[in-house]
Recover the amino acids of this structure.
């Protein structure tokens, strides 16, 4: 699906606040409600718009520690990778996981209550899958976090 300027405006508006009404979005993009709804529906069907969620305040809920976990592995077989990915998907502490090019094979963003909770996560992970080297970096301060794309 090809998107135009109006679609971009709708997406920018939804990225800012997906809970706003169709009337508010239509007013913001200079259209009426029905065409805006049809565009949103088409973008959902095309997969441009995915699940709508709520952004929670992690610290207010007691998740005060964010670790970036660098993983090197000497295992590159499909069986190991499937087991590793299953272990990551089963752990709600893992907010993001990326396979990388370069010296580090994977990077994880892990959100937990504290360092002790990270250690519980770490011990469980290494008991399930063999990794060559793990380096955990504690984020001291979140300077910027967004899910918005630069449309």
């Amino acid at each position: 699906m090809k998107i135009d300027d109006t679609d971009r405006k709708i997406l920018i508006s939804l990225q800012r606040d997906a809970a706003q009404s169709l009337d508010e979005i239509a007013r913001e993009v200079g259209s009426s409600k029905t065409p805006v709804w049809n565009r949103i529906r088409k973008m959902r069907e095309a997969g441009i718009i995915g699940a709508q969620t709520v952004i929670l305040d992690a610290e207010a809920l007691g998740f005060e520690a964010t670790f970036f976990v660098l993983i090197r592995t000497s295992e590159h077989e499909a069986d190991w990778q499937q087991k590793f990915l299953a272990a990551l998907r089963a752990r709600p502490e893992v907010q993001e996981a990326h396979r990388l090019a370069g010296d580090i094979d994977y990077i994880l963003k892990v959100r937990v209550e504290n360092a002790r909770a990270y250690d519980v996560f770490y011990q469980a992970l290494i008991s399930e899958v063999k990794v060559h080297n793990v380096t955990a970096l504690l984020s001291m301060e979140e300077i910027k976090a967004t899910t918005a794309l630069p449309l």
Residues 5-45 form a domain with the Arc Repressor Mutant, subunit A fold (CATH 1.10.10.10). Residues 1 and 46 are 6 Å apart (CA to CA).
